[in-house]
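Because showing beats explaining, we think one record worth quoting, sequence and backbone structure tokens together, and here it is:
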Amino acid sequence: MQLDLGDGVVGVDGRHFAPVYGPMSREPTPANRVAAVVLAAGESRRFGSPKQLARFGDRTLLERVLDVAAEAGLKPIVAVVPAWLTPPAGADQGIHWIRNAEPQRGMSHSLQLGFAALGVEVGAAVVLLGDQPGLPATSIASVIDRRGSRPIVAGWHDGHPIPPVLVERRKFTVVAETRGDAGLREILQGLGDDVTRVELPASPDIDTQADLERLGAP
């Protein structure tokens, strides 16, 4: 698998490949869109049933997160989901559904699949978790508003990175460095001045049925 960086291609193992343009490819266009990469392919072991289908009010957890991404103006929206999941009836036709047939490889594999699906028109991508239905669109806006000279803008709470995390195209290569279930979390801690930290309120993950009950209906 490779990550298309517009003017180059990077394999998920970190090797660089030269870009190839021809009849089956197109020249890169200016990258100015801010996309969403929604990670929702987890195995839901602690939850006891597929979290992607759990109800939160009149929507599923995943639908809530997709709604927030759309409300924040992110486009395209890439949703990385289990191979068995059928897109919800009436789902936005603009959502790109990416199947992760190997969720046991951890969140990092979903992250790499999601970024590999981004087109050359995307200038930055915001990483969201499919089990954080309480994340407000205002948190995404706060991260986007802090875009500047640094290649990553990350939510920060109590000394640690939290979603949403925005990665500029020139730093998409960092995704290939992720391993297991840690995703970008550990890498962000070590990137220093490459990261703009935005203090945000924490949005709880839904890991168990009790977590969902505590969050309550919207």
